[in-house]
Amino acid sequence: MSTFSAIAARLGEQAIELPSWAFGNSGTRFKVFMQKGVPRDPFEKIADAAQVHKFTGLAPTIALHIPWDKVDDYGALRRHAEEHGIALGTINSNTFQDDDYKLGSVTHSDERIRQKAIDHHFACIDIMHATGSRDLKIWLADGTNYPGQDDMRARQDRLADSLRKIYDRLAGQQRLVLEYKFFEPAFYHTDVPDWGTAYAQVMALGDRAVVCLDTGHHAPGTNIEFIVATLLRLGKLGSFDFNSRFYADDDLIVGAADPFQLFRILFEVIRGGGYGRQSQVAFMLDQCHNIEDKIPGQIRSVLNVQEMTARALLVDRVALEAAQREGNVLRANEIFMDAFYTDVRRDLSEWRESRGLPAKPLAAYAASGYAERIVRDRAIGKQAGWGA
Amino acid sequence: MSTFSAIAARLGEQAIELPSWAFGNSGTRFKVFMQKGVPRDPFEKIADAAQVHKFTGLAPTIALHIPWDKVDDYGALRRHAEEHGIALGTINSNTFQDDDYKLGSVTHSDERIRQKAIDHHFACIDIMHATGSRDLKIWLADGTNYPGQDDMRARQDRLADSLRKIYDRLAGQQRLVLEYKFFEPAFYHTDVPDWGTAYAQVMALGDRAVVCLDTGHHAPGTNIEFIVATLLRLGKLGSFDFNSRFYADDDLIVGAADPFQLFRILFEVIRGGGYGRQSQVAFMLDQCHNIEDKIPGQIRSVLNVQEMTARALLVDRVALEAAQREGNVLRANEIFMDAFYTDVRRDLSEWRESRGLPAKPLAAYAASGYAERIVRDRAIGKQAGWGA
Amino acid sequence: MSTFSAIAARLGEQAIELPSWAFGNSGTRFKVFMQKGVPRDPFEKIADAAQVHKFTGLAPTIALHIPWDKVDDYGALRRHAEEHGIALGTINSNTFQDDDYKLGSVTHSDERIRQKAIDHHFACIDIMHATGSRDLKIWLADGTNYPGQDDMRARQDRLADSLRKIYDRLAGQQRLVLEYKFFEPAFYHTDVPDWGTAYAQVMALGDRAVVCLDTGHHAPGTNIEFIVATLLRLGKLGSFDFNSRFYADDDLIVGAADPFQLFRILFEVIRGGGYGRQSQVAFMLDQCHNIEDKIPGQIRSVLNVQEMTARALLVDRVALEAAQREGNVLRANEIFMDAFYTDVRRDLSEWRESRGLPAKPLAAYAASGYAERIVRDRAIGKQAGWGA
Amino acid sequence: MSTFSAIAARLGEQAIELPSWAFGNSGTRFKVFMQKGVPRDPFEKIADAAQVHKFTGLAPTIALHIPWDKVDDYGALRRHAEEHGIALGTINSNTFQDDDYKLGSVTHSDERIRQKAIDHHFACIDIMHATGSRDLKIWLADGTNYPGQDDMRARQDRLADSLRKIYDRLAGQQRLVLEYKFFEPAFYHTDVPDWGTAYAQVMALGDRAVVCLDTGHHAPGTNIEFIVATLLRLGKLGSFDFNSRFYADDDLIVGAADPFQLFRILFEVIRGGGYGRQSQVAFMLDQCHNIEDKIPGQIRSVLNVQEMTARALLVDRVALEAAQREGNVLRANEIFMDAFYTDVRRDLSEWRESRGLPAKPLAAYAASGYAERIVRDRAIGKQAGWGA
């Protein structure tokens, strides 16, 4: 197995984007529980995200969600982020919270509604120019609830047509990142339900159209690391939305439900060239802290990704390939598991300290008094949340 | 196969309880789409439910949800229902929409919160006295999101203790009906996840504690009709929450996703003595009409149950048992399918007319002008919905 | 809704290929139950398959499986089929029953074994020339059981390379049809687990490489009709392996587990141009009759496909599209369900009689004495089965 | 967190029973791959099982499967085991490999076949007297493939009746252990599909009837540790069949697919009093080594259980309970994960050495020459396997 010192440099290449919406209130269809100190606007979300980066060094950017993070002056927002030591990242569009979109957005049979959804993406691209964002991430709630409700194939054609218009509006290095999802909020069919559909759609668009893999958006039992390997092989893995799940799109803290799956995913990312500075694959979190504290929840999340990345980097790939070539099933598996079972936490603490970061980020955050401060400072006003 | 005339009398025994919350706005965690004409209070919900009964003759009662349907005078509500030709039915408790219940209600480690949840059930029982309801239905959102978050076994003990207190408060013929659910809103463990847990808990309580089977609350692939048969055999099937699903707890119109499953369920209900006037098994709907019209959605639902009940009644059980005894797999299956594939709709239309009901309930409702009237009459005020 | 007479002509276009292995013994890993009268060689399988066509008019071809159906003289086999009124169809390769293939065949890291697997496909192509078959269907058992066991991505490259060699050997109108499967017999990863992988692989090959969709080869909850629509849209749906399942790849009689799903699939086939004489989409069965009689099981199966095709053809697509355009969810669904709930069996009986076929194929077969004859005639010798 | 030294004594209490059938050839319905050196009779299986115990100290007993392990003289078999340093354990009945059982065994509608199956269990009990076994483990393949094929409820009654007869035949401390399984080989319904059914059946029998939990026998997503906790609470957890799975009943090496799940299960076992000398819960493996070496596969398996047991014992339960009481979700989860992420392998090596066992059991076995010896010695004769 590789030693920790051999992988230390590579760990420095890690960057995980935080979702602005992780800091606002979220919940299930049954209830959104309110937490004290939650941000009231995008500026406060950025301040919170910056805390995660301050204590971990892992989260240099924050993704925005439009219209949740709409502001009058994106230049000011950008400077605000920079003053807090982070940058603005991916722009996420939202075509699922307007009554017009009840039966679809870019796939809607009504041209007016389709155009409205396309225009929203144009507005997002305008924002990207102001924020300096590279990626326009498109997750669609489009789908149907009942067989026969709409023509699934015609919707694919309309989807292709709408995406084409959006894609053509991109400039320079900007990318269109299409996310797929197995189900929810649509309960019969989803217009982009699987990686195959996303892949076929982005293939038709061009080089700067890629796929976003959200780890919670698959059918039960799906081998996600296989999809990672395949999309990397096809040159179409654009980004990750990390989270974890036991059942459906539970949006739990990444690594919480199945740490070994996270390890396998990160191994394939590294093996396939998706990790590090030269890679175009964006790492992002997309999860909800419905019942746990939000900033610590994000700190826990990026640490989980880092710890598992370290383990995946530790795999002795030379020995592994030898065992694989020999067809030694048990030996190959053992080499793989050796890295997973290695406890990297002490080494990571030292690594952090060597870079001027706290050995124990969660404890350091707790000791900083920030949590108490925001509870006090944000006592009045409307808290941000989904739909805020 | 039996003839339709042979089963006509039995069809007259059918009664399906409607959920008051099916008439208010509902949605997913992403969005609640508003519909025009939606009720603004429990009285209007009852008026809408009465429409379903008026056009189908199938829905003589309405279930209430506390506190959503809290009123000052339940006697008045009861009379209001009776004036509209229906009666008040099951009382559903709600311990999932108060901030205190973030980490649990009747299973919470904090005695104060447990007692608050128990007290809520006591209040529900008081309402039952006023409404004349037989059943107190308890669905719990209790569970955890993360391994280690709480002690699952201690929660079972606390659950047993809380249920005991609630059960002991019941009087006369009142029943405690415990519903289980595989997951959601809890994403790691649910305190009553399966029929086995519900069964073990109600067995410990006594004769008037029974299980509610919601058809959307199972793991993928679960053979629900087997559970129906088993609970009937054990004497513990108390009621149904009907709906349908492709993925999780999608809460679609009953019969919409898998009509054949509904047929199999109803066949086991009938075979096991769970159908008809002498049975204590309550038929209820529990579904959301997020994107479709609500009153027609309920009409469609009760008709689906009726049509499938007719098919299930048509099964030639004598021939079926003979084929089963012979081990004739194909023949037994064919006899079973014969009933399923029989188109009973014309016969049901005639049956309806013979009883003074419209042949085509959906068309008759559409022609009645009720939909237009409520849109007009309820233009102002706050619409009811989950949490309203 | 369309009338039956309006669709009668289109029903005449239906042709469903039977798998030769459906007539031999099959089972689970726990037990293969023997049946009397089972064929002892490919000639007898053809004779049995011809019975299905004789009584239904629906099954004019039989698929062969190599090496299970290896014979010395394929010309003789072809003539034997023709004398029985059917033709030879798809050739299925088999690279999963040789000890060499324990860790893979066309994806194996050992070049010798890969070449052996490729050579087997070359031999299959040679047979296709003799049998006049159009399609070479490739289902691979390739995959791994343990994380780390092999390099999933390198296996994709080797798969692509092997398929390229096989594809280049095809001549004239011959096609390579690549089948995907979610899992089994591999239990960690499958080399072609989903339609996306199959699609990406056949896209790289060329026009005459297409995808085979086996209805039992998906993750739980997968919307199969969406995949049908999508593959038809992309021009890459080559064929179907029909069967049904409640859990995994149960290989039950098509339509037995979820008749409504079969209806939805067939609707998308028709809507997408995959049905009828002008279509290149091949309909095939691939199922096991482990406990039921084999020839009647196949008759039941093709009748199920026919009955559901009739229902799908009956959908009033003009009215459906109008309701869809209006966004009338309930109405669109109702139009769709109207066709599904229509009992077409009597009309189909008359249709059959009008074409010189028995009104009731199963009864006619039972009355024919064929079953008794083969039990008597095939009393000695080794029965054919998987691996025979 | 606890220190390793604090748990060392408790590790000494671990005993994991091996299945005799793990040493014979096994496979999928597609192919059984043969391995060299595989046992040819029960005596050789015992010799192989003894190797696992010799190098790990963890596997002092071997379970037998009747009729696979039928011998003329069970006294001789028992002495053979003792001479090899192990003992005979659970007796597993088999009513799934006789043609009579095609449609069921103890649930069959034919009284003759039911009695045959009951008699087989009587014969197993006779063997238990000779072997000194405590447990009769009953896993039934009984079920149906098609809706309508048989009467599911009548089968429950027949099951109860048959189990009653078998249970009444037990003597002294003998136990009846009923195993449940979600599906396979039956594909529509299974007569004991879930823990609830097994629980209801054994409750009706008496104190010495308990449930066996096979970790691969659940629906996708099932929270198995919850079932462990619940069965322990109800006093009805009799034994475990350990293995792991990604999809269905894959029967992979325990801990291979989801190590964290194994950790959670073992934590609940310990928390609920199911671990250690005073406990009546039997730990058993039930898995197949289809493609990997069999003896090393078993060594790997018992080590996996041991390593994860050590981690589960390390959980700081006092701190955990404190965090749980405070409702500190993140802290409670962190305490739980701390133990899981601790690398116990070096400590376990030392622990082993301190007890006269090899530090590295797999390497020690490989160096022992046993594998080469059995390949040489068992070159001729029929290998044992399922059905042998």
UniProtKB/TrEMBL annotation, chains A, B, C, D:
Keyword Glycoprotein among record annotations: no
Top-tier EC class: isomerase
Record carries keyword rRNA-binding: no
Xylose isomerase-like TIM barrel domain segment(s): 73-226
Keywords recorded for this protein, A-Z: Isomerase, Manganese, Metal-binding
One Pfam assignment: AP_endonuc_2
Listed name of the protein: L-rhamnose isomerase
Natural source organism: Steroidobacter flavus
